[in-house]
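Let's sit down with a protein and look at its sequence and fold side by side. We need material for that, and I hope you will provide a protein of your own picking. Once you have written the record down, we can walk along the chain together.

***
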Amino acid sequence: MATNGVPELSNRDRVSISARMFEWGLQNVFTSREVDGLQLFAIEDAMLDRVEAALSLIREFDPLRYRRILKDLDRILVTLLPGSIGQFSTTNWTCTIDKRFVLRESTTPELIASVIVHEATHARLNRRSIGYPESLRERIEDLCFYQEWLLGNKLPNGDEVRTQAERYLNEPPPDFSDSAMNARRDQGAKQALRTIGLSEKWARRLIILIKWLAWMRRRFRPA
């Protein structure tokens, strides 16, 4: 259907345009590197170096898992990520890692590797049509942290990874309801925006805009 002589875009076309814009942003804003066919993107080479070191650990000490990661993920992006240190996106099969975590002096390659394994587990589940419904989130996160624990057992210096996973698995789980996760994401977004110098007022306005854009993307996603 056309409006004022302009053809109306289908939902699939809108998603395709969004994907192309995302790819354009990656190619023109970020520094990139390719490791065994996996694309890495970040603002600084130092971030890429640390991610590549983490991937090298997985490749050397858990080669089967490494091959799975190459199949399940298209890219790893290091950028400012609100609310968590890692996130997986089914829209573009991307593992995103918070740049503050990657650059922190206390963050070892082993810890970065554990985040990659965690998010790649989400990707693997999605490849098998297991998404992230509210009713399954606790079990899914348990599985992801268990995979971190398995990795920690294989790494020569994996004690911290293993201890971190055991702590999560042995403690009461956090609230994974939509409302609780949205609240944590909003709080994380405010903190992230303050790190780049935005005032509280403008941070709130930008969060509203981001939420609206996310709603629009979901609204026009093809069934």
Notes: The first helix runs from residue 11 to 29. Residues 9-15 have pLDDT under 50 and may be disordered. The beta strands are 2-3, 6-7, 31-35, 38-42, 75-79, 86-89, 94-98.
